[in-house]
Amino acid sequence: MIFRNDIQGLRAIAFILVFIFHLNSNFLPGGFLGVDIFFVISGFLMSSIVVTNIDNKKFSFVEFYLKRLKRIIPAYYICVLLIYLTGIFLYTYIDFYSSLNGSFKYAFLFLSNFFFENGESYFGPNLSENPYLHTWSLGVEMQFYLFLPILLYYGRKYLRFILPIVLLFSVLYSCKLIYLDNNLTASYFSLGSRISEFTIGILYAQYFNKGFFKKDLYNDAITWVSLLTLLICVFIFHENMNFPGFLCLIPCIATANILISRNIYVLKFLSNKYLVFIGTLSFSLYLWHWPIMAYMRYENGFYEFSFYQLLIICFLTFILSYLSYKYVEVLFAKFSTKLFFGLMFLIVTISCTIFLNKESLIGYKKIPDIYSRPILGLKSHFEGIVEKFGSTEKEPSFLLVGNSHALMLKPFFNQIGQKQNFSFYSLTCDGYPPIEGIKVNQKNDIENLRFAKNLSPLTNQYIDKVSLVIIAVNNFNDFNIPIRQLADTLLKNNKKLIIINSFPTLEEVNILKVNKGYINKIGKLQKDNRDSLDILMIKKLANEYKNVFYYDLSKKHFFDNAPFYNDTLIYYDSNHLNHYGSTKLADEIGDDFYNFLKEYLK
C-alpha cells in the first residue's frame, strides 16, 4: 500500500483532540473522539495492507505479527516500565497497591481495557490520576490486530456478509451494556463495543476506497459534510452521553469518509509538513502525554492545570515523545529479528524483576494499617456477609447498617460493646447503605448501587432479629427518603431507629500523600459545611417520628484538630476515620455514647 501523508495528518488531528481533552475536558468536550478516529484509521490501514499482501501472494501471518510487535512493543514496554518506576517513587504505599500495581500488570499484557471496564468511568476523577488509563485503547488495538488477519485471510470471500453483521452486533452489544445493563463504563472500554469502529474502517478500505460516486463533485460534497460533522461532534459530544452505542457511528463514518476523500484541499491540508510530523510522532505522543498529566495531577491534588503547568506538559510530552520515536521506535524497527527478541527479553526480564521485588523498593513508605486503611468488618462490607461484633458472650442487640462511614465506626461500636458487654450485627456498603429505596446520588456509581440493592433483602432479614437499627451515613440528604421508609417500617413493627450524624468530613486532600506518615506534619484541615446540614435534616426526621433518635458525633471535641488527635493521624482520607481514630474515639466518648445507647437497648 502506498504511504499516505494525509493519513499521518489525520492521526495528528486525532492526537491533538485527545491531548486537548486530557488537558481539560472543558476545553474540548468531545476531544475523546480522537481515540475513535485512531480506531477507524487502524481498521482502514491495516486491512488495506493485509488484503494487498494477500492479493500479491506476499502475506505471512508471522511477518504481520512481527511487524506489529516491532512497531508497538518496544516503545510501549519502555514507557510502561518507566511509568511504574516513577510511580514507586511518587505514589504513597496505599495508592501504589490500590491503583498502580494492578493496572501495571494489565497494561503489560495489553489487557488494560478489561481492568478498567470493571472499575470507574473513563471520565471519573480518580482515574485522572492513573498513569495507565490511556493504555486501554492500545489494549483494544492489539486485540484487534490479533484477529484481523485471520478474518481477512480465511473470510475474504464472505466479507460483504460478515462485516455488516459484525458492525451491527458490536453496536447492539454496546447498546445492551448501556441501556439494559446500565453499565456505561464496560461499554466504553469493551473490545466488543469498539469492534464497530474498526469494522467501519475495514468496510471503507475494501468497498468504498475510491469514493461513492464517479463524479468528484459528489464525493467532495460528502467530504465537506463529513469534516463539518466531525467538527460539530468534537464540540457537542461530551462525557455524559451514552457513548459509544449508536452515537459512535456518526464521527466514525465521518472519519471514514475523509479517509477515502480525494479532495485536493483536504489532502493538501492533511499532508502539510507540520501535521505529518505530529502524525509521525503520534504513537509516542499518545504514550507519554497522559502519564505526565496523571502524575502532575497526583502531585498537585487537583484536576485543572495552571498556564505554566500546561507549558511544562507540552514541553515534556514533546521531548519524551521525540526521544522515544528516534531512539526506540526507529531504532528497534531496524534491528534483526534475533536482536529484537533478545532486547525485548531483556526489557521483559527487567520489568518482571522490578515487579516481583517492588516491596523492597516501596516498602519503606508503608504506614501501619491502623492509620492507612479499613481493617475491621471488611467481610460485612465487601463480601455481603453479616458479621457479629462486640461481646462474644451476648446475643446481638441491634443492627448497624450504612455506607463506608458505618464501616469505619465498626471499631468504635466493637470496642464499646466489648467493654459494656453487648454485641451487634453489621452490614455495610461503599457509597450506599444496603436498605430499600436507594437511588443513584453519585455520577458513575452504578456498581456500588447494584451491590447495595442486592443486599437490602439481607438487611431486612436481620432487622427481624433485633429491636433496634443504627444507621450511619455521610451526606444524609442523599438518603433521606429511603431512611424515612426504613423508619416507617420499623415503626409499624414497634422497633427503634438511631441515626448517627457521622464524624466530620474534611477538605479534599490526599492526607496520606501530603502528610507522608502518621505523625502530624500538615496541621488541621477545614471541616466540610455539609455536616451541619446533615444534623439539621436528622433532627427534623427525629422530630417527626417517635421511634427515631439521633447521636451527633461530628461536634465532639475529639475532632477539633482533625485529621489528627494529639498529633497522631485519625483519618486515612479526607472522608473517613482510620481504625486507630475509631478506637481512640471509643476511648474518649465511649461512656457518653453508651449512656445514650442503653436507653434504647431495653
TrEMBL record:
Entry-linked InterPro entries: Acyl_transf_3_dom (IPR002656), Acyltransferase_3 (IPR050879), SGNH (IPR043968)
GO cellular component: membrane
One Gene Ontology molecular-function label: acyltransferase activity, transferring groups other than amino-acyl groups
Keywords assigned: Acyltransferase, Membrane, Transferase, Transmembrane, Transmembrane helix
Domain Acyltransferase: 6-325
GO BP terms: lipopolysaccharide biosynthetic process
SGNH domain sequence ranges: 388-589
Taxonomy, superkingdom: Bacteria
Residues annotated as transmembrane: 12-31, 37-54, 75-94, 133-154, 161-180, 186-205, 217-237, 243-262, 274-293, 305-325, 337-356
UniProt name for this protein: Acyltransferase
High-level lineage: Bacteria, Pseudomonadati, Bacteroidota, Flavobacteriia, Flavobacteriales
